[in-house]
Structures
1.
Amino acid sequence: MFRPLASIALGLLIPLTVSAQASEGPKTSEARKSARLFRSQDPMVMTLSADFKTVFKDRDSLSTKTYPAKLTFTGEKGDTTTLDVQLSTRGHFRLRTCDFVPLKVAFNKEQTKGTVFNGESSFKLGTHCKNNDRYIQNTYVEYAANRMYNLLTPLSLKVRLAKVTWVDPNNPKFTVTQPGIWFEDEDEVVKAFGGKILMQQGGTGAQMEPHQMAINDVFQYFIGNTDFSVYALHNYRVMAQDSIGQYSAMAYDFDWSGLVNAPYAFPDIKLKERYRLTKVTDRLYRGVVCYKPELLNEVLGMFRTGKDSLLGTLSGIKELTPARYKEAEEFLGKFYKEIDDPKKVKEIFEEPCRRR
């Protein structure tokens, strides 16, 4: 059972139930404004200086340790600013696998005044994982996947590409410049909707707002991602909007998708055995909600009419090599061939749901 949070956490409880019918998605009273950092899509040029030998030794996913660092970046007017920040390591699988682990960057609010980080407490920074061409190119593709999701729904984490120069004052040979990804704070996202993050497992897709959930399900198939679970809150966050009695699901973390096709990624063993998935580029539709035809058609229509914009997130990244761009474009092209075939649409999105 997926129970509402206790009243001590959310105040007056309102029963949260949703019928699986077409709607307009999560409700917000105004166009969602993102943090200042994400209002530009120009890559941020920045340098991060710290004792990374010590920082990257912290591989405990439950660690609360922080490490001092200097963040120097080029501002909106071409000016250079240096901030004192605190770094902490984060993540799970990448925390164990990557040479450059994902980070959380915490700011001193007094120092951020007048900058793109003005008033912010912290942001997550995605890294290139390893100094390897495939990993570096995959960082750009992962960024594009997040931008595609942004184009489909406002209930998503905004992202911004960064050109990060990593410096360890104790090791001159360490210095390297590679891409990174800034991620919007999830709590700030849901505030724009008058909601709160619900960190309670047990929810199902059928209990989520149907329009947003349909976008999620089709998007996950679009990028070839099977590494998620609303029920277990794995690569999903659930937003509760008490004022209108609604749950909505927000997806994130797409590095295990077939689109990214990371060297470390592989299908879950249960999915591999049941559906004969041999690699992450094998698509599998994992939607468990039987959406009404008009809603499913509406969402598929969003992907059709938005094709140029969605693929444009890839073509707009000049650092992508022609070979990596072609690989990603061809992968997404297979999706479009499928949704242009009514028989395939029924086979992929309708029949499996009814069987389950």
2.
Amino acid sequence: MPEFSDRLNRLPPYLFTRITQLKKEAYAKKLDVIDLGMGNPDQPTPAVIVDRLCDTVKNHQSTHRYPQAKGIPKFRKTVATWMEKRFGVSLNPDNEITALIGSKEGIAHLAMAVLNPGEVVLVGDPAYPAHFNGVILAGGEVYSLPLKPENDYLPDLGKIPEAILRRSKLLFLNYPNNPTAATVPDKAVFKEWVQFAKKYNIIVCHDNAYSELTFDGYVAPSFLEVEGAKDVGIEVHSTSKSYNMAGWRIGWMCGNSKIVAAVEKFKSFLDYGAPTFIQLSAVAAMEAWPQDVEPIVKIYQKRRDLLIDGMNKIGWSLQKPKATMYVWAPLPDAFKEMGSLAFAEKLLIETGVAVAPGVGFGAGGEGYFRMSLVTHDNRFHDVLLRLKKIIAAGKSKVPAK
């Protein structure tokens, strides 16, 4: 058997592979598993979206044919209308928007479309794994930007060495952030990105997949709201989390027309685009916004409060995030030395609670773990009991000083 691609071999083990294997073993042992590992919505897709799909598939047979790689005109026009209504961002649906088979695909294809081998990409650390894995698959080099709690998980672009900046071509950032749930305090942060990108001739990709999952009155902005943003970059959106459509695989990229065109061209050689009936379902989702999103957000907010209030009672000191479907928490003191992957394994094997180890999001995630709010409300009581149990067990094994 010949050796496989060097690029494939450069990829780290996929974040959920080990946890998935342990979950299978736990299920086989009849263990009561509570899965908070993957950001995979457990709530149903809103009925208006499902009804549109059923009607389209049954009564419009032309939608069963090959789609347009860039997205059908109705989808792109609806995205333009939604972006204007939601953010006040004006986009040309003909050349500033392209459909994606989910934002993950678009992020990876962007890297492949714009990078040459050896070019540097600036990526937040910790980050959504597609941000750095896509770069590796494209033959680029990742330069990690530390996202630290003392800096509110925002990048310090001023600390990047000039030698790195001269080789950099692309900047990936993501707010509201996965995995940390951090948000930008205001659009001034985006203005800094635009100035930085123009100074060093760098493309900006802002992953805004969680723009609609916000709480306590916080409203997430778009990078494209800032003057000059379309000159330097694009933004990626997804229906996966906002509308519980993770398995439907539909999103979009919008912004700079040259960058959008490059991704469209690349995609045209690799896929035929998202199925037309899925695009029309996404149209129904955007047309029903915000009414179909509000109940989803309320459920996540209730779960956030249950989990964080409970964790704070048993030893943590967590602030409630203003956005996303995640809780990002430090490892308990008794388990810090073992690392996040070993802690996640131990937690699953001994209690049945599955979480995502922080190190899976980059070296900067070590010392933390991420919990997704994707189980029924009443299960969080069980989660807290099990966390309390393993913390107590850990403390009992720590020798007295």
3.
Amino acid sequence: MADQLKIMLVDDHYLVRVGMASIIALEPDMTVCAEASSGEQAQALFRTHRPDVTLMDLRLPGMSGAETIQAIRREFPDARIVMVSTYVCDEEIYGALQAGAMAYLVKTVQREELMRAIRKAAAGQRHIPAEVAARLADRVARSELSMREIEVLRLLVSGRRNREIGQMLDITEGTVKLHVSSILGKLGAEDRTEAVTVALQRGIVQLEF
């Protein structure tokens, strides 16, 4: 049908793409025009198929979903992209929307809401579910961490003590304590353990293995 919305799926998991394609196939006004498993492939397929709406995974091999959105929108500023992710981390939600995503959905989303988000994106409208909006509001309510504070926070997450952090960053232990105190205040945490937990939950830092 000429008036069908063309949908591109971008996810590195084959079964996820099959599942989304099956759901979209139930809609008479939609069709899947392309599938990609990486950001680089998504860029190439976007040029060929010019989808009306793209469903994009957040964490892809190589380029991230947010980086892929930015790359596509540099070439096609009117691209309508919906982020669909397993993760509900404040920083990743913010990053995706800053990159230009029209919506941010969790993969547990119900079919009706997914279809609503696709149709709103096609019409140039944003769709932010209540859970995502609450996390964004919480993020905005807190002050930004400085780059130095994020460096200290990463080392806290890796289990370093103040003296070790000072040595690694070439700052005094007293300065480290000041940074830790500021981090606790900005994250609304009572102690270092809670700060690490909050930072991981919000996606400010990630565990490195």
4.
Amino acid sequence: MSIKVTIIGAGGVVFSLGLVKDICLTEGLKGSEVCFMDINEERLDVIHRLGVRYAEDLGADIQFERTLSREESLQNADFVVNTATITHNEHFMKRRRELTAKHGYFYGHTGMPEYHNLQLMLDVVKDMEKICPDAWVLQAGNPVFSGTTLMTRETSIKVCGLCHGHYGYKGIAKTIGLDPDRITWQAPGLNHNIWLTHFYHEGQDAYPVLDSWIKNDSEAYWEKNDGVSAQMSPSAIHQYKMFGLMPVGDTPRRGGWWYHTDLETRKRWYGGSGGGDTPAGRDRVLEGKEKRFQNMKEAAYDAKIRPVDLFGDKKTSEQHVPIIDGLVNDNEGQFQVNIPNNGALPGIPDDVAVEVPAIVNKKGIQPIRVEPLPRKVMLECIYPDWLNMERTLEALKSGDKSMLLYGVLNSHQTRSYDQAVEMLKALLDIEPNEPMAYVEDVNDHYKWPGIW
């Protein structure tokens, strides 16, 4: 069936090309249109050229357009894949890490909510209400948990948040010697806060195999592998021992504040040089992304280089296009999604976005009701995350900057009120946050900078 898919933030070229691959390789989406939208014209041109040439290589009947205008990109859209972020841009994150380090915070752990990313998400769906009110938005950019909750509460747009962290179950299986393709699993919770409640290999409980690996093989594994993945790090195993369930995907990257107090602590819990979530680790990620972009840029402009030779002709593991195919062509499948709870995860209100399995077909995205998470996990992991999300959304909606300050004061790396104030001021002054510093609050007595 011919549809229009708009990719907002298409300048994240690697992810966008993956979407193009999956659309080109999905038979039921022949004749469809892909619209790339970004504010970076160079990156927009690269992904447009790659998309056109890749479709040519495959002989796929897909049409492409590009635009710098969000409103234009949304015209007649059936699906909007929103990958755009502001504060998750790698260059911005590096500036923020360097700034927070000057104020005594290691690796940016200041408790500052993702205000601008959330406002961007809200702006997109409000535009959709005016331009393409029947379209779905598949939210890929972070923060997925608070963003999905915000968009579904404030607009009538159909929203599905997606993340690939749940594939961490495959890393667990591979490491302990099991075939990931023979694993049956379930990992519900909140985005970046999900827990492996079911873990079976060929119908047999695989948790005893994990326990045996921890007892007999984990120490040797950590010694041999310098900088193991967070999924099988000492931090992940420690969280498993604390809570009784294995944390999955991005969950072990977070954990408690005690895993992230300084670089030496990071080395203890994540091995090697401290893992990817350190200044040096993120610099390596940034260098890798820049190198990849340059390679893709060469492929886009060099007629001798064929994109299919570089990027292959196999579908990615991302869920976005299979979900679109399920909704449009009734090709039913089960996926891990972030949608309003509506009773799927016990103990969470219906209007809070949860990450749960769901059946997708022509009827829509239908969450599967899961068993309750252990009370300890709810009290120590899920409920605190939910409360923090609610504070963040209230700060965004009310304009009460004291609530932003409260988040910084709550950081375990904050040693004094004055430190928190100076840190928040500095964060609000760093590009692209400047406009935030001059927005007046709803309550006159909290007008900026009156809270100081």
